[in-house]
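Internal ticket #5521
Category: modeling
Description: The requester needs a full-assembly model to guide mutagenesis choices. All entity lines are attached below as received. Residue total reported by intake: 980.
Assigned to: D.W.
Attached entities:
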Amino acid sequence: MVSADDAVKFIHPGDTVAISGFASAGTPKDTIPALAARIGQVRAAGTDFAINLLTGASVSTDTERLLAEVDGIALRMPYQSEPTARGRINSGTMDYVDIHLSHVAQQVWLGYYGKVDIAIVEVSGITESGELIPSASVGNNKTWLDVAEKVILEVNSGIPSHIEGMHDIYYGTALPPNRKPIMITKVDDRIGQPTFRVDPDKVVAVVRTHSPDAGSPVTAPDAVSQAIADHVLDFFAHEVKAGRLPADTLLPLQAGIGNVANAVLGGLDHGGYRGLSCYTEVIQDGMLHLIKEGIVTHASTTALALSDAGFEDLQANIDFYHSRIILRPQEISNHPEVVRRLGLIAMNGMLEADIYGNVNSTHIMGTKIMNGIGGSGDFARNGFVSIFLSPSTARGGAISAIVPMVPHVDHTEHDVQVIVTEQGLADLRSLSPRKRARAMIDKCAHPDYRDALDDYFLRAQAATGAGQTPHLLGETFAFHQRYLETGSMK
Amino acid sequence: MVSADDAVKFIHPGDTVAISGFASAGTPKDTIPALAARIGQVRAAGTDFAINLLTGASVSTDTERLLAEVDGIALRMPYQSEPTARGRINSGTMDYVDIHLSHVAQQVWLGYYGKVDIAIVEVSGITESGELIPSASVGNNKTWLDVAEKVILEVNSGIPSHIEGMHDIYYGTALPPNRKPIMITKVDDRIGQPTFRVDPDKVVAVVRTHSPDAGSPVTAPDAVSQAIADHVLDFFAHEVKAGRLPADTLLPLQAGIGNVANAVLGGLDHGGYRGLSCYTEVIQDGMLHLIKEGIVTHASTTALALSDAGFEDLQANIDFYHSRIILRPQEISNHPEVVRRLGLIAMNGMLEADIYGNVNSTHIMGTKIMNGIGGSGDFARNGFVSIFLSPSTARGGAISAIVPMVPHVDHTEHDVQVIVTEQGLADLRSLSPRKRARAMIDKCAHPDYRDALDDYFLRAQAATGAGQTPHLLGETFAFHQRYLETGSMK
């Protein structure tokens, strides 16, 4: 049992440090600020000090910021969403490797990032037999505890203690040729145990804290988000009518974070649904509400990114939520095998899509990273239907989310089936690229940009004699170049 | 029992026709030429006649050509590789929908392409109880027989009769929420039955033929293919040394069709390997040789695209091959669950890659389709390691296979791990995009193009203040534009 300041003395320049944390949940509260301070001091004294930082996904904003401010991160993997870190990446002083969240555990097991020197993992308690009770996110913690040479545990008494038992930590994964089927056939199937194992000989420090997760704020949907949500709900009704989705229960829902996803979940409140389920990577307040109302029966996730009020609700009604929410390692919450088998309805945000249905989730104007791909590819690629959502414009209309060609592709035409903006919904399934372009321009583009997109599409066909995917290579990025030069794509 | 000419009278303009065939194996031999002739006659008489054509993958060249020549195909799905059809697609007279081969069965079950009016399926025989013995490819035949309203069977006595029993037709797939784990944990696990089922009431015609599959020619590897293969074999040795691949058996191999894949398989002959296995979608002659030598113990596929000599070998040694080769439906040979679990070494060709590791498998100069994505995405995305292979130049050096940005993305930076040309191998794993660019230019690009790529990369960094993925939006496709204007990227 040591102080955070003492614990971080086990961390050395060049170390690969794997920490807990997924979205706003489960980042070590005291150890990381202490590490950032130590790096700052060492650097101030003239010695270089940076680590390679592996996480679940994004971590608490302070964590990412403090480490970035002292230039403490040499390499970052797999997802970030904090402005200071983003600035370091885009200025070339931090390496960022953007991989699918379902790939992280196996790639680290295989040593793609060298050995993991130290893991720093927040837990909500330690059992009498020495097993670890996870906190509000699971992420890659099981893997970190298994592969790291040294372990620092942060035992946080600020996490609702009754969370114990909500987790399902599966120890059956392996590297090939020893992989077995993952026997989840329903969202609420439990295949693991409620605690992490750790080799006590590896634990070099235990730090005690009492710090709740910083609440993940929830904002009410605006008119644009609400319009997007309405189109999605219409689509569900259409698919039910076509016999492709069960009428009451649909299929398990996956939704990204943010206003639009919240609006969709909010809309389910009024859709007459009962007994829905969710298989996703992050649960926010809206999900608690749906569970309480009986609209959602079970929800599986790897993180609880709740607001302060959400955590209070969880705490106050823990007996009710306990059997209805399951927290899994992200290699299971995002596992291609399970995603495919359960048949997820995958709903994820995007920065922009092109008229042929290719999606950019990560890069501003093709060059600067925004966040990362996160789990969107895991769900979109292997899900039952892959839906991407975005307002049709950004920056007060200066940016069109529908463009002739995206300057970075995170999801290809083969993996994108439905695109939704507040203007409408383009159902790209079974359409050839030329027909997709018609749907994208007519249904999804903002009216201010329709003529320019139409003009591009028609001239591209004329210039190339049609073609499977007509493009004018000299002006594919005219929208983006205009924005960079004038501040508007118009 | 009717003639092919009579059988095709069941096919009407606007019908969706699902036929057997995967690569050169298993296309109906007589019915399709009869259908093409009928369409030609009806059209000559002034009536419009076109069908929607669904297949396994490519079908025999004649099939695709004859139907395209009479403008008999309105919509084509999921893969084609024949020049006449390609011309119709690129001139805008044929719709082509390019989807992952593993997605075909479920999308058709869900009705994305409307109802399937008629299936035309080649079989090698009919059992006494009325079940169907598959021929040299399985493809989507199980699905076609299940979903089609009418069925035409072509019973081909030209297929080696002892092929019976080599097939493993799995009837356990379902639509969610009723999906169960697919219990394959080894390449040679059998989970199905040797025959197809068909509702006899749906069978409107049986056509008898005696026509072997047109042999799929094999060419000896040239120096470039051999150099690529050597780099791949070095990589295997490197991965074995790093403890990531089992020394003798590696992990199951998947290889696309063509010279380069053949060279890699040929190279395994001299690598000291024993007890390898393959889990792939097409087997060519080289695989028979490896099996005969004991280098490969078991091979799973959905098609046997053999040369005439290969079929003779199969026939002559059928007792030996019978237990060593398994033919599965393509929804299983390419299934994400199985691909991930077995941990495939995915090796696929490409048209071009960009310096950041995005791969174009399908589009010439961004607009015109070449073939289709086929199964490459199924294997690359969920496999153990995804390797893409290509000569560093095409058309006598006028085209560089390594470019600043690919004008069409079929495999994103998140799904591409290793790129190989005859120049060398770029191991992109764990590298940020800027470091990937260094590896791609130094290891994979042809020396004639290295300076131009370097120049682009350096100027892009300078202009954007580094950035995660530096690009100059005004000249991303300068290589391609130069080729279109001058006939050379130089």
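Resolution: model delivered.
Comment from assignee: Residues 223-241 of chain B form the longest helix (19 residues).
Ticket closed.
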